[in-house]
Each structure stands twice: as C-alpha cells, then as structure tokens.
C-alpha cells in the first residue's frame, strides 16, 4: 500500500511537470525596440532619438548619447517616451565613463520609474523622491570611505530623499564595489528584473569578450511599480567625466506559457503600422545620408580612410589592449584548466586513499614489505631482549643449581659421615667396655694370684671357677641387654627423622 501511494505521488509529480513545463526554464525573450537605442545612426540628423527624448546637457550623436559631458556641474538625462507594457525585463547598457582625473564625478543613473524624471535633477542629473528603481554608478566618494566608484540599487516609494552625503549607503537595496571609469573597452551592465528578482551583472571593460560578465548583486522579492519609464541620467560636479551611453537594449521577458496571446492579434494590425514606420525611418535615414554626402563631399572618403590610419600612440594602445585581452583569455583558460586539474587530483587522491584503506584490510603487495620490515626489527629487538632475560635467568638458575648441588653434596657428605659418627660412640663403648672388662679380668687374676700366694685362704673356697664364670655370664647378659636397648632406641629415632 505504501509503495502504491509513493508511485501515485510520483505520477502526480510527473503530470505536474508535464502540464506546467519548467517553472525554472528560461523565459521567452522579445527585443523591445521602442525602449532601446544603439549605434550606428543612434541619433538622427536633427539630433532626435526615435522613441526617446533627452534634455539638459545631454548630447546625442550617431554613436552614443553623451548624457553629461566632462565639464563642471553638468546634468542631463534621456527618457523613453512610452511606459513599458510588460512585467519582466532585461536591460543591457553599454557605457563609458571617462575623465582625465584620477577621481571623477558624479556618476550615471539608470532609472525605471512611474514617471519620467527631470533633466537637471539632484540625483545624478534627475529627480529625487522618485517612485521605482534607480541604479547608480556613483563615481565620487562623498562620504570619504574610500568605497567608490560603487554600483548600487535604490528602490524609492516617492518619499525618500537620496542621501548624497553618505553615498546612499543607508538606502541601498544592494550594491558592489566596481571600478567602471577609464576602461580600455566599454563597460556593460545587464539589469534583469524577472519574477521579482533583480539581478545586476557587470562587465568591467577590461576585455574584448562581450560575455565577460560577473555578478554584482541579486535580490529577491523586489516589487517595482508596473508600466514604468526607462531613463538614464548623469551629472558632473567640481570634477567631471564624460558619461557616454552607447547601447540601451531592452528585452521583455515572459515566463514560459505566459506570452500574451492577444498581443499577436494586435500585432497583425500594428505590424503594418510599424512596418510603415520602419520604412519611413529607413527612407529618412537614407535621405539624411545623401544630404550629408552632398553637404560634405570630401568627408566620406576621409572617414572611410580614417579607419585605416591610426597614429603611433593609437596603434601602440590598440596593440597593448589586444595583447592584454589575449593574456586575459589565456589566463582564464589556464584558470579553467587548473580547476579541472585540481578536480582530477582530488578524485585520484580520494581513489588512492580508498585503495590504501582496502590494502590495509586485504594486505596488498605494495604496502607489505615496508610494514613487515618494521615489524621484523621490532620483533628482533623483542626476541633479543627476551633472550637476554632468559640468559640472565638461566645463569641465575645455574648458580642456584650449583649452590643446591654443593649443598646437596655437603648434605650427602654429612649424611655419609653421619653413620660413622653415630656408630663410633657405639664401637667406642663396646671397645671401652671390653677393655674395661679385660682390665677388670686382669685385676681379678692378679688379686687371685696374690691371695693364692700370700694368704692361707683355700683358693677353692674363696673364689671358685663356677662362681667366676657365672659372674662373667651375668655381666655379658647385662651388656647385651644394654646394647639391644640402645639399638632399639636409635631405630626409633631414625623413624622419627
Ligand atoms: Ca557619490
Ligand atoms: Ca563613498
């Protein structure tokens, strides 16, 4: 049942995906020429720019719009004539801010506001307290925090006064520190407002590569008023830069499936009108060109050849920039390759560590000898130590055994000597007894002889032989009994040992 539920959910998910193909897919794009300008023939002969109006100190030429020239206290602006009729958009501007000084002023602003601003306002040449979005390229460091040139976005609801003294740092929605002044190539900004996400990509003008953008900021949940006007303004102060805008290209963005259907119907009617407008414009342009050629018969030739000739300095500069551009390209390639190499190295390292881990477990042939060698040495040391210990203990045991042996020998000797020592007194006793008995007998014989020779006493009456033999027999029996008693006593003593 659980599996079935999961499968059902998966199906629902797949159906959702099929029904609304790619919420994250790239939007439909449509170039909006009515909100764009670009060279060549950016401005017409009369100085007007189709679908745009400019004022203040702004100057338009066929190549660019100089919104504020490098003179003191200049202000200018250019505004689209029509408000936009789409919700999401992308604006690509190509611009150059150049000046002789190390520091420039004041900066350039790109606007998207509910109403066209002034041509000589206080915020980078246009009106303060605007309603909508202002993107400022602020050259001059008013608050002296060494954080300019700076790019920032400020959204205003028509009530806030821009804080120039702090360079708008407290009011900015987002920003980034980028140097956009005096670059070898034109700087570019790509401002995208799509599904309430505002993104600013910036090209620093250091390379020829037109796609060399990096992100300045991306902000979600940005709500801008609908049907606003696009505009650009610029201002100079005590210091001055030329603020030139070369391209202003607007693209409307439509989420997939949201391209206006009725727009197509309208365009059928409008198309003829627009085609006519376009043809008129082309005709007018040709007429102007012809007039220009008539008025300046020598100019076209000159301008044609101007492209072929360049001064020494120009050539050197061009060569330097070309070389620099090539170096940048090579560096980027190298960087990419380095990343690739590092990635591969990491992969191989991880693989190697994995293998090493496996080798420890399985005992691979590569790691074995080194490991065994170290173990052998340790083992040999241990064995030697053990041997030494064993030798010393063996010596101790040997000396102990010798001691025991000598002691045993001495004991054995003592034991061997012991019976003689014990027997001796017995022998001595017997011998002394026998000698005593002999002495006794001798003295008895002498006494008998003396009595026999000296006194009249009858020998037979005094001591008869039977009496003598009886006496001796009794004495012998006593001696035997005594010796038997001694033997018995000794046997008992031995048993006790
Ligand atoms: Ca400033
Ligand atoms: Ca500042």
Automatic annotation (TrEMBL):
Instruction: Give the record's keywords alphabetically.
Output: Disulfide bond, Lectin, Membrane, Signal, Transmembrane, Transmembrane helix
Classification via InterPro entries: ConA-like_dom_sf, Intracellular_Lectin-GPT, Lectin_leg
In what residue span(s) does the L-type lectin-like domain sit? 29-253
Q: Which organism is it from?
A: Dinoponera quadriceps (South American ant)
GO annotations of cellular component type: COPII-coated ER to Golgi transport vesicle; endoplasmic reticulum membrane; endoplasmic reticulum-Golgi intermediate compartment membrane; Golgi membrane
Q: Where is the signal peptide?
A: 1-24
GO MF annotations, alphabetized: D-mannose binding
Coiled-coil stretches are: none
* Membrane topology term: Single-pass type I membrane protein
Gene Ontology biological-process entries: endoplasmic reticulum to Golgi vesicle-mediated transport
Query: Which compartments does it reside in?
Result: Endoplasmic reticulum-Golgi intermediate compartment membrane
The protein's matches in PROSITE patterns, at most eight in alphabetical order, are given as: L_LECTIN_LIKE (PS51328)
Q: What is this protein called?
A: Protein ERGIC-53 isoform X1
List where the protein spans the membrane: 467-485
